[in-house]
Specification:
24% of the residues lie in helices and 33% in strands. With 86 residues, it is α+β, with helices and mostly antiparallel strands. The protein has a single domain, classed as Beta-grasp domain (Ubiquitin-like (UB roll), Roll), CATH 3.10.20.30. The strands form two sheets. A five-stranded mixed sheet has the order 2-1-7-4-5. A two-stranded antiparallel sheet has the order 3-6. A hairpin with a 2-residue loop joins β4 and β5. The protein is globular. The protein starts with a strand and ends in a 7-residue tail after the last strand.
């Protein structure tokens, strides 16, 4: 199954991404598992998508990391850090 991921603010600037489609397993898959997969892409990804400062929405509603995703969900990723923070 696939989900859409959109990056806003600091994650967009530092990861050089605005959006992508991501395939995830058919079994119950949580938002935390998707973030863990994205963090495997490298050091910048691990830092920017750390659960300490990433804010997530699923289908335009704030989400918890334990929320289960379904086919076609739209994930939005924001940061509680400014783009000027290093």
């Amino acid at each position: 199954m696939q989900v859409a991921i959109s990056y806003f603010g600091r994650p967009s600037e530092f990861l050089l991404m605005t959006s992508e489609m991501m395939a995830i397993p058919e079994q119950p898959h949580t938002l935390a598992q998707v973030l863990a997969q994205l963090r495997k892409r490298g050091e910048n990804w691990a830092y920017e998508l750390d659960e300490q400062h990433v804010i997530c929405a699923v289908n335009k509603k704030l989400a918890k990391f334990s929320d289960t995703l379904t086919e076609g969900d739209e994930i939005s990723l924001f940061s509680n850090k400014s783009i000027f923070d290093l």
